[in-house]
Structures are given as C-alpha cells and as structure tokens.
Amino acid sequence: MADLRLSSPAFDTGDELPKQFFADEEDISPPLTWEGVPAHAEELVVICEDTDHEEGVFTHWVVYGIPPSVSSLPENLGRTTIVTEPDELYQGLNELGEAGYSGPSHEERPHRLFFRLLALDTELVDLPPGATAPEVLEAAEDHVIASAELVGIAQ
C-alpha cells in the first residue's frame, strides 16, 4: 500500500472537532487534505463514521467519485449529491438519509469520528449519486489500494 496521508487544516488527529462541525452549531463539513495518492489510483472515497455511537456505527459523511488529481475537499462542501467544485464528485447519504455531511451532537462522553480516505484501482461507475456507505464500501471491496485515517473527537 502507498503512503497515503489524510489531514485537516481545522484539527489534528486525536483533537476535538471545532464547534462549526457539530450538528447543533453550523453543521458544516470540515476541510480535508491528502497526499501520497498512488499513481495508479482511479478514484478516491471519503467516509466519516462514528464507531462509538450508542446505536452502533453512525455514518456522518460519504463522498465518492473523487478524481485522483484532487488533493482536498473544502470546508462546507454542501448538501447536494452532485458537487461540481473542486471537481465533479458525489456525496452519498449519511445516517439521517440526507446528502452531505451531518455533524455529531455534543455529548457527555467523547465519540471518535473516523475520517477514512480510500484510494481505489477502479472507478465506481455503477454507483449513482446518493449511495449509502455500505453501498460504496461494497462496490469498493477488493479495489482499495491505499487508505488513510484521521480521527476527530466529538463531545
């Protein structure tokens, strides 16, 4: 696997998420940047999940169809299934059944939000805009050539 690295100018791994990324605040998606994409990557995928949620894994964000030439996602990507900037890409449905990012709520106990970046050796051409995380992960199965992770803390 390549040396893929995922980061955010808004927080470091293990840090608390800034308030604007919480559902009960501005509820906007955080900016993400990456480097080290393998030369033979055909598509990138970002999935953000809370594995500490009381009801099990909670999907906060699904982004796919990201061209390998793209090296970042801006803050506040919006809530549409088709995004045209920074390039054309798709957002899937979060756990609430909505397109785009849905932030965590402030809770008494900390939750970890895992932002995962996957580099694929194929394009997920059969997935329409608005797919769910399980649909994206199933389509990506056996095609992940590199991955990276960034963990934000919500409480």
Brief digest:
Helix content is 5%, strand content 34%.
Question: Which descriptors apply to this entry?
Answer:
155 residues, mainly beta, Phosphatidylethanolamine-binding Protein, six-stranded antiparallel beta sheet, three-stranded antiparallel beta sheet, 9 strands
The CATH homology group name: PEBP-like
Query: Which second-level CATH architecture applies?
Result: Alpha-Beta Complex
Succession of helices and strands: EEEEEEEEHE
Helix content: under 10%
Placed side by side, the strands forming the largest sheet appear as: 6-7-4-3-8-9
Number of DSSP strand runs: 9
Describe the structure.
With 155 residues, this protein is mainly β. It has a single domain, classed as PEBP-like (Phosphatidylethanolamine-binding Protein). The chain is 5% helix and 34% strand. It is built from 1 helix and 9 strands; from the N terminus they run ββββββββαβ. It has a 6-stranded antiparallel beta sheet with strand order 6-7-4-3-8-9, covered by helices on one side. It has a 3-stranded antiparallel beta sheet with strand order 1-2-5, with no helix packed on it. The longest helix has 8 residues, at 133-140. The mean pLDDT is 95.
